[in-house]
């Protein structure tokens, strides 16, 4: 009789462990999905902000271009056109970021860094440990 109860308890314990393990996996997968969703939202907000900024840059660039060309026509000297050179680079960068493939190039470069140069992104003291975090938490009290 005791042998049967022992086997039943062992089976019950194994089922309980499997259940807990599955719950942990599900919780971790949910956390990963949530963090990725939050990252995607933050990236979308940054891109939307860049696009809004680009609209203002485009307006400024257009007005500066009109003013520069008008100044050149009135004076017949190239000096009013000089500020357009750096502004063109800024405008082009913003356009590439907002509507070009700059984000793809940034992702590819980030992947290359992760694969080929991981030393560039390691933390100075390595990953924090639970004991280090607990020690710091105790200091804050």
UniProtKB/TrEMBL annotation:
GO terms under cellular component: plasma membrane
InterPro entries, per the entry: Plg-R(KT) (IPR019319)
Top-level division of the source organism's lineage: Eukaryota
PANTHER family in the record: PLASMINOGEN RECEPTOR (KT)
Name of the protein in its database record: Plasminogen receptor (KT)
